[in-house]
Amino acid sequence: MISVQNVTKRYGDTVGVQDVSFEVGEGEILGFLGPNGAGKTTTMRVITGYHPPTSGTVTVAGYDIVTQSHEAKRHLGYLPENPPLYADMTVAEYLHFVAALKEVPRKERRGQIDEIVDMLNLGPVYQRLIRNISKGYRQRVGLAQALVGRPPVLILDEPTVGLDPKQIHEVRQVIKSLGGRHTIILSSHILPEVSMVCQRIAIINKGRIVAVDHPETLSSRLRGNTRVIARIEGDPERVREAMLKIDGVLSVAHHQPETGPDGAARYEIEVEGKKDVRRNLFFAMAAIEAPILELRSVEMSLEDVFLQLTTDEAVEAGDESTAGEEEVVAGA
Predict the structure, then answer these.
(1) Could you count the other beta carbons within 10 Å of the beta carbon of residue 76?
(2) Cβ atoms of 211 and 181 closer than 8 Å
(3) What phi and psi, each to the nearest 5 degrees, are found at residue 316?
(4) Residue 232 has pLDDT above 90, yes or no
(5) Which of 55, 73, 99, 186 is an S-S bond match for 104, by CB 3.0 to 4.6 Å?
(6) For the domain 224-298, what is the CATH superfamily, name and number?
């Protein structure tokens, strides 16, 4: 549904993004992550046709965003970071105005808007002037305008900015419910939000895509040696010595027994590569009569993945920086 191929965007001598490529399948929710100034907003503006690419191509639902702009945009709903609202309109007037702009047939407008208002709980402010509603409600009105016209593709840039925790939960649930019916790119700096909502993630740094994959696959690729956490009863020195004799165990960190009836100690075990030591660990502990109460491998969190990719890339990228992107965009 979305195909970005070798897209570069320059603002004079400043590179916004360079040679960016990725695809989003029908019904998929893709999380789009990157540090400030990395190129997230530029990429999303190019995808939506707000800025033309300097080179490369973008297609939405099979339509080229430059040469078939009108058809491509009919399939797009866009929520920018700062929603395009008209403060002197009521919420009702604004949504009907957006429906007219999007050429929604007149007989379908009321039904569509009522459905969206109900979905986003906008009823309490529906007849109020936009200037008089809270920032959280304004953000929801911005999401509502993106949904008008039932576009199959949604581009959402920081959709939960300014919302309170209850509203954030509600909007996340709405976005999750839209997956399958809509293809979504979700840009967010809230990493748990991306983990909860998105099936895949794309990470951009210094204007280049550094990873596109499922979070757990990225974790597996980057983690190198495996870490295992175990809680085990028994003499810590005997337990630790037995562990270190197991093939593939590189080191064992021991933590004092936890308070509680079992008095078990916690161990962090570093294992070479992706070796599976569970069976050997079980027999080693059985031999010294040390019951295993907990055993689990430790995956890298999305935050760990994000920091490793963006920090490494920042060091390797040298002088080719796009740190001025936000300034250039703000002045555009």
Answers:
(1) 22
(2) no
(3) -80, -20
(4) yes
(5) 99
(6) MTH889-like domain (3.30.70.1340)
CATH 1.10.260.40 fits 2-75+151-220+304-330, yes or no: no
Q: Which residues contact 42 (CB under 8 A, 6 or more apart)?
A: 9, 16, 17, 51, 207, 325, 329
For the chain, give the number of residues.
332
| CA 265 – CA 271 distance, rounded (Å) | 19
Please provide the DSSP assignment of 260-292 as one string.
SSS--EEEEEEESTT---HHHHHHHHHHTT--E
User: CA–CA separation, 66 vs 56, rounded Å?
Assistant: 10
| Paired tokens of 101 | 């702009």
Strand 183-187 and strand 76-79: the pairing is unpaired
Task: State how far the Cα of 244 lies from the Cα of 237, in Å rounded to an integer.
Answer: 11
Task: Report yes or no: 284 and 247 within 8 Å, Cβ to Cβ.
Answer: no
CA distance 263 to 261: 6
Domain with CATH 3.30.70.1340 in the chain: 224-298
Count Cα atoms within 13 angstroms, Cβ side, for 66.
11
| pLDDT classification of 309: cutoffs 50, 70, 90 | confident
CB 29 within 8 A of CB 316: no
Contact 200, 212 (CB under 8 A): yes
From residue 141, give the alpha-carbon distance in Å to each of 98, 153, 215, 327: 11, 18, 31, 27
Contacts of 312 (CB under 8 A, 6+ apart): none
pLDDT tens for residues 264-294? 899 999 888 778 899 999 999 999 999 999 9
